[in-house]
């Protein structure tokens, strides 16, 4: 019987949290899925952990290291379902994730995301997301350069994903932001107002280590969204031409954002009282937030009319 959901789980040197991620998928109340675990050239014990599982729903692949987008494309091409579920090797899916997401499937829906509990490296919860729920508000947030949908939480319509051209290999960071803008032109993007994923934040997250590249790629995607308004992947020439302009425009904004994210992560690792102490000792964090707000507004105005 054809599975209703194909879960794509890319793995690269993820041995520390991998078993917990796999276990959380296998423990789903919704059972009609296949789990494609793709080892993208790991050099740690990831493959040994993967080999320890024997479940008819699991399909294991090993490939040379090609990065996340290459691994996602590899998995999507080999998936047997009409709906693709994303999962990262350091996160934890709650048992009712697929069951609740599947209830929201409709002909005009392209992407179904969820809220998430934020956990630190030790699995301790320190916050929850509160993203927009409906398509219009999600797109407005994207256009405001704001997080609005959690990539490893999503269920994606495979036909719409393929019609939009899939992930752009040029967007080796912030590949999801670019896809959401393109796929939003042919289908709705929605979020379920429940935390159905534990999203792990730690120092090795790509979003933390390469925030400057991610920011530039988001801005390039926005420029393409406004100027071309197409669901087709942007041409190479457009990417390189616009990236030169954005690199000059975004320096101060990115500096402020990186400082803000660093401060947020430090706050997240403290208890409630610790957060108050941190803010008292670091009032510059509030000033930094104001700088981000003002510099982003100027930057987005430039992007809109590039």
From TrEMBL:
Stored InterPro entries: Glyco_trans_2-like, Nucleotide-diphossugar_trans
Q: Which Pfam families match?
A: Glycos_transf_2
- Top-level EC class, please? transferase
Which keywords has UniProt assigned to this entry?
Glycosyltransferase, Transferase
Please report the stretch or stretches of sequence annotated as the Glycosyltransferase 2-like domain: 6-163
- Output the superkingdom of the source species: Bacteria
Q: What SUPFAM superfamilies does the record tag this protein with?
A: Nucleotide-diphospho-sugar transferases
GO terms (molecular function) for this protein are: glycosyltransferase activity
EC no. given is 2.4.-.-
**UniProt xrefs under Gene3D superfamilies:** Spore Coat Polysaccharide Biosynthesis Protein SpsA, Chain A
Q: What is this protein called?
A: Glycosyltransferase
């Amino acid at each position: 019987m054809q599975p209703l959901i194909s879960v794509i789980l890319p793995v690269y040197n993820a041995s520390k949290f991998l078993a917990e991620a796999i276990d959380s998928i296998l423990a789903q109340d919704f059972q009609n899925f296949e789990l494609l675990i793709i080892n993208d050239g790991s050099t740690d014990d990831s493959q040994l952990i993967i080999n320890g599982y024997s479940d008819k729903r699991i399909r294991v692949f090993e490939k040379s290291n090609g990065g996340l987008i290459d691994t996602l494309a590899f998995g999507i091409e080999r998936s047997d379902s009409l709906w693709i579920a994303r999962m990262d090797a350091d996160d934890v899916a709650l048992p009712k994730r697929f069951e609740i997401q599947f209830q929201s499937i409709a002909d005009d829906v392209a992407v179904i995301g969820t809220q998430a509990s934020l956990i630190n490296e030790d699995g301790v919860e320190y916050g929850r997301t509160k993203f927009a729920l409906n398509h219009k508000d999600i797109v407005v947030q994207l256009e405001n350069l704001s997080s609005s949908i959690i990539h490893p939480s999503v269920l994606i319509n495979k036909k719409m994903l393929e019609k939009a051209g899939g992930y752009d290999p040029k967007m080796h960071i912030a590949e999801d932001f670019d896809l959401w803008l393109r796929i939003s032109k042919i289908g709705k993007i929605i979020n379920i107002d429940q935390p159905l994923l534990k999203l792990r934040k730690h120092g090795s997250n790509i979003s933390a280590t390469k925030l400057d590249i991610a920011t530039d790629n988001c801005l390039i995607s926005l420029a393409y969204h406004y100027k071309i308004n197409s669901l087709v992947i942007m041409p190479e020439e457009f990417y390189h031409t616009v990236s030169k302009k954005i690199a000059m425009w975004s320096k101060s904004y990115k500096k402020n954002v990186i400082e803000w994210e660093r401060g947020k992560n430090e706050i997240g690792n403290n208890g409630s009282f610790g957060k108050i102490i941190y803010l008292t000792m670091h009032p510059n964090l509030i000033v930094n937030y104001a700088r981000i707000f003002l510099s982003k507004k100027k930057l987005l105005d430039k992007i809109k009319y590039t």
